[in-house]
């Protein structure tokens, strides 16, 4: 009886700790990426009906979370005419959680557009980049319930595949002075890896963040690797996604992603090909990194 009683006490003592350690709601995360990469969104190409469905999905989630925004209906519209030979507008979806100790800003980004359809093929873009978008939604939910020290602006950007147009528009019309941005965290392709590895790009330029990333990496079941930011003998992802325009302005960034895989920019980048375990662990690692950095930013 004593042994059974001790076991029961140990069981219940462990429950609160487990609930605190799991910051990402795996069920919601997987439901989000599954919807965002579904056939009904038809690849989410900019200006298409599927793209608008994705934008509406993100807006409704921000509304449900009761996030604030500096833009009406969470929407920052921007013209495509200046950059593309097509009419219409792109839409960045912007949510905001004010910090309780600072007006300085961490910008968390992920692009929600993809390549659309070509003939009968749907380019679902599960990894690229329904994965980053679903992660952004779940991080917004976390920080709404666990208010950060510094303010966090969540930006689901459009028209990345057309030349980082949404990021450029956000930079051009950022709703706060740019010097308030302390860090840009960009997530683009984070849901699969053949060697259980997630890259953190940018510490070559902004080494002040590396110790906090390393601390989070040591607690993770997946491997966090630094590089691919143009060092000797390395690939250079410095300007390969939406963090690029901000880096060119001298605004610090960390880009989380994986190397191009066999399904990159192909119709086979589908929900069934993501690694749900790796994806959840990657999201937890990124969120823990943001928490570590939020705790030390001045």
UniProtKB/TrEMBL annotation:
User: Which GO terms are recorded in the biological process aspect for this UniProt protein?
Assistant: proteolysis
Positions the record marks as coiled coil are: none
Top-rank taxon, per record: Bacteria
Kindly list the GO molecular function terms attached to this UniProt entry: metalloexopeptidase activity
Domain Peptidase M28 span(s) in chain numbering: 92-288
This one is known as Peptidase M28
